[in-house]
Amino acid sequence: MSQHLHSVAASPLNVTAAILAGGRGERLGGADKGLVRLAGVPLYRRVQAALERQAGAILIVANRHLDEYADSGLTVVSDPWPDFRGPLAGMFAALEASRTDWLLTAPCDAARLPGDLLARLRRAVDTGGARAAYAVADGDAQYVCSLLRRDLAAALHEALDAGERAPRRWLADIGAVSADFTDAEPTPVWSINTPAELEAAEQYLSSSGESCHG
């Protein structure tokens, strides 16, 4: 990777953050997960608060309740396909809507994100000379927490048209590198997929005395 690409990656002003809220929420009874409340705050608002300090612009990818997300004041875009192709489709929509060289993505149910999410992903990209990086913690990959070069949009569109739906496989295909978050403090809450996980997160954040914005 050229020194130019290194330098643009270093500035949050050249990063757009995307909150991916376009899923079906099937394991939460079909709920729109971004609007599910944790400690009285919609999950997507917690993600927004974490990303505001790490990017020059934030947008939301949503396929339902667009007006409610628009109330945030953020730009809202939707997947270009109507058949719920998963997080890769959300990543593509965000890449298409972005006007910066880099895109930082996170799922709408990431109740607590590291304050150095961008910094660690950027370091991995720089060290590996890659166009993409994703988070790993305790051996578990968090593929939707990623940093992507905007020029990956065409390759991602091609993969989606060919039937690819798994972020893991696509990121491997493009040579993405991993960034370790095992020692991140406080411990991140990367996703909430079930009512039990929502309850556990509520208890965990309450016991830590965390404010509503994380």
Report on this structure.
- Transfers a GMP moiety from GTP to Mo-molybdopterin (Mo-MPT) cofactor (Moco or molybdenum cofactor) to form Mo-molybdopterin guanine dinucleotide (Mo-MGD) cofactor.
- It comes from Solimonas fluminis.
- GO terms for molecular function: GTP binding; metal ion binding; molybdenum cofactor guanylyltransferase activity.
- Its EC number is 2.7.7.77.
- One of its GO terms (cellular component) is cytoplasm.
- α4 runs antiparallel to α6.
- The chain has 214 residues and is α/β, with parallel strands linked by helices.
- A hairpin with a 2-residue loop joins β2 and β3.
- The protein has one domain: Alpha-Beta Complex (Spore Coat Polysaccharide Biosynthesis Protein SpsA, Chain A).
- It has eight helices and nine strands.
- The protein has helices at 3-9, 43-51, 66-70, 87-97, 117-128, 153-161, 167-173, 195-207, and strands at 15-21, 37-38, 41-42, 57-62, 75-77, 102-107, 132-137, 140-149, 177-180.
- The strands form two sheets. The protein has a seven-stranded mixed sheet with strand order 5-4-1-6-8-7-9, with helices on both faces.
- The longest helix is centred in the C-terminal third of the chain and has 13 residues, at 195-207.
- The protein is globular.
